[in-house]
Write a structure and sequence with these properties.
This protein has 328 residues and is of the alpha/beta class. The chain folds into two domains: 189 residues, 3-Layer(aba) Sandwich (Rossmann fold); 72 residues, no CATH class. Strands 6-7-8-3-9-10-12-11 form an eight-stranded mixed sheet, sandwiched between helices. The protein has a four-stranded antiparallel sheet with strand order 2-1-4-5. A hairpin with a 2-residue loop joins strand 4 and strand 5. Helix 4 runs parallel beside helix 7. It is globular, with a radius of gyration of 21 Å. The protein binds iron/sulfur cluster and magnesium ion. The site of magnesium ion has 4 residues, from loops. The site of magnesium ion (MG) has 4 residues, from loops.
Length: 328
Amino acid sequence: KQKLLEVRDLQTHFFTEDGVIPSVDGVTFDVHKGETLAIVGESGCGKSVTSLSIMRLVSEPGKIMRGQILFEGKDLTKLSEREMRSIRGNEIAMIFQEPLTSLNPVFTVGDQVAEVLRLHQKLSRKQAKERTIQLLRKVGIPRSDKVYDAYPHELSGGMRQRVMIAMALSCNPKLLIADEPTTALDVTIQAQILRLMRELTEEFHTSIMLITHDLGVVAEMADRVIVMYAGQVVEKTDVFTLFKSPKHPYTQGLLNSTPKIHELKDELESIEGTVPPPSNMPKGCRFHPRCPHATAQCVKHEPALKEVDLGHEVRCWLYEDAEEAVIS
Ligand code: SF4
Ligand code: MG
């Protein structure tokens, strides 16, 4: 499989009054061409900061400290802000949980989509408007010539998210980063939006990096999955293996606490304990205060991410040889 995006040992810190917070701490993963990679974890695990780092949108007091973000072989961390602007929205597009905050309230939704098209594709005003109406129709918005003239607050949440998808796909990006794209929507609308994303990205051969806390969405959408905990990747595998034989105790906890895949709303809250505050990270394995299998070794030494099966990586002492463990 061809790699579109390669994130290597990414580290993003936040410099706060309470000290340095390593929100993303040595994260490595790939997104292949045409696939959907899901990043799963509780809020505060570093999944959103990972995507903002890729877009180079981490704001003060945050800073990318280390690592490479190779997009088609080009290291995004090395690009100028100007070069980065031509990639953002054009080659890599992003949609967020609440479209109301990413849409400008004083312009009509049609003009906003048309503006993006004009900016990136050098279309005339008239061409951009025609293309926008086509796009709005394509994302399933009825009477799209009327909706063109609507303001964001006049549309439902589901319709706004369709507008955001139209805007994101308007430049035919190679990578779509979707951060909790359906979390704010009710279940029926959520299913429609996910279906739409799948259809469109298949048609346009777009790769998706899907950030979610919802394992139902993962089951529905993902080819491969990485599970993040406290700024690190703890498990990485294909979606079938994740649900059939999860190896990391945290992943097992996520799945066990969910009797049915599509009734999952608050599943991540049901593992005992909470995510450690990043300013006070536990020593050893970061999951040990919540782990039912923790040993003295887990408390003292941090496990590394290791491949335990072909394409299946886990960060846990349970899957390492005792001998190896003693040395580290
Ligand atoms: Fe649990 Fe130890 Fe594995 Fe961490 S390393 S997940 S504490 S068994
Ligand atoms: Mg988030």
